[in-house]
Design brief:
globular, 2 helices, 145 residues
């Protein structure tokens, strides 16, 4: 998004300079520049407490812990998002076509979604999410706007 584009109603969009002021270097690289953390390095890969995972950039609730599962991929995996919280976009980088997932509210890059891998989840999807893109809290403490 360019600085001159008006954000959609309810959007938490900011300019790159505004994001750089509130995100650390690694968060900015992943959330704003569509980077990826190394497999198995994220703090939420093996995290299984009850609560809600929210966008590390804007605080919007994205995933409930009840949708998290162990896919063995090295990143937190979820089979579904909170309705309306995550947007999907075609990603043709690296010579392949994938589905990128972003925070609907701020546009922050979360990771990618993969379908039909046979994990036996209700949606047969795996939302492969960077831990750096997430914060975790109890459902009672989730920021609500």
């Amino acid at each position: 998004m360019s600085d001159s584009t008006a954000p959609a109603p309810g959007s938490k969009a900011k300019s790159d300079s505004e994001w750089q002021a509130v995100l650390n270097k690694e968060q900015f690289r992943i959330l704003r520049q569509k980077g990826t953390e190394g497999a198995g390095t994220g703090m939420y890969d093996k995290h299984y407490e009850e609560g809600v995972y929210s966008c590390a950039a804007c605080g919007t609730p994205l995933y409930k812990s009840t949708t998290k599962f162990d896919s063995g991929c090295g990143w937190p995996a979820f089979f579904d998002a909170i309705p309306g919280a995550v947007s999907r976009h075609e990603d043709r980088s690296f010579g392949m076509t994938r589905i990128e997932i972003t925070c609907t509210a701020c546009g922050g890059h979360l990771g990618h979604v993969f379908k039909g891998e046979g994990f036996g989840t209700p949606t047969d999807e795996r939302h492969c999410v960077n831990s750096v893109s997430l914060n975790f809290g109890s459902e009672d403490n989730v920021k609500k706007d």
